[in-house]
Every structure is written in structure tokens, then in C-alpha cells.
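User: What would this chain look like folded?
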Amino acid sequence: MVREGIPFILIPVVIAAGLGWFGLWPVAVVFAAVALFMMYFFRDPQRTVPQDDGLIVSAADGVVTRIDLTDTTKLVSVFLSPLDVHINRSPITGTIKEINYTRGKKMPATKDEASLVNERNALVIEGEGITITCTQIAGILARRIVCWPKAGDNLIRGQKFGLIKFSSRTDLLMPATVELMVKVGDRVKGGETVIARSVNSEK
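Assistant: Here's the prediction, encoded as C-alpha cells.
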């Protein structure tokens, strides 16, 4: 479990204990259930990161809901429901060249417009022969985007770099030259599912 989840667990536990002390067990059970859900939400499962050269892995758990193709870029957007793991992982090994935080709206993350208007945090990661922008996007329930590293830090593929609290979206903006390995509707796992492959990598 990530440390950011501790307050979300302790508060309902303390309330449940206090209610139980006064014999208000039905309400205490509700708060105990909330604490259990928060433990589940902030879980931090182990992942097996693929090691082949040129692979780009998903930055988040969830469902691919959008793929946009242009002459110069390919974008894959993953929606995270409140039941998904909300830890973000680096899609490639590289150096964070920029981190750009933008204040925005709280539009539901299920809408494609959320990528453009919602609160978001974009990491530009420069790897070997490729640069990718990974954007954390807050949803209607999200209260905070968490990003642990800073510009200039190095990341390895699959490394945890942050999380978004409650429902959200994570976008990967990649060069048009990559070969996509997913389609809309696919369920992916952060740090484990291959999203794309560099065309210069060995297959």
C-alpha cells in the first residue's frame, strides 16, 4: 500500500472505533467498510516488467478508451475506475526533461475532453532514441495528482513515479513511428502491459 493512503484509512478506522465504543455498531460497520475499501484502493501490487529492448509499457491500470493517430504522434489514453490500481509507472527508461502541471476542471475522466481541460500533470521522458509524454489527468472524483520525481531525475521502465487519487485517466503521447500493441477496449496493467514498440527495436 502506498503511504498516501494512510490518512484515508486511519480516519474511518478512528471514527469506526469511536462509534463502536458508544455502541453504534451499524454505523461503525459502514466506516470500517470504508477503511477496507481505502486499503484496497491504495494497494501497491508487484508487477513483472518486460525487459525486451524498445518496449513501451502502460503507465496505469485500466481500459484503453481512446487512440488518436496523427502524422507525427500516436496517443493512447487509459481510463482508471475507482476499482483500478491508481499508481503510475514509467513507460520507458529515460530522463524526465520537463514536468508541466496545469490546473483545470473536474470533468469526468471518461470523457475524452478531460485530457484537454482537466487538472493534469505531464512528464516529458526522454529515452534512448525516443521521447514520450506521460500525462496524469484528474477526474471528477480525484482530489490530488501525486508525482514524486522532479525534472532531471532518471526513471527505469515500470518504475513507480506517482498516483492519482480516485477515478482518473493517463495518456501516453508517443512518436508516430511506434508500433501499437493495444486497441480500444483492451484492459492493461501499469508497468506490465506492452502499449507499443519502437520500430527500431528487435522483435
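The mean pLDDT is 87. If you want, I can go into more detail on any region.
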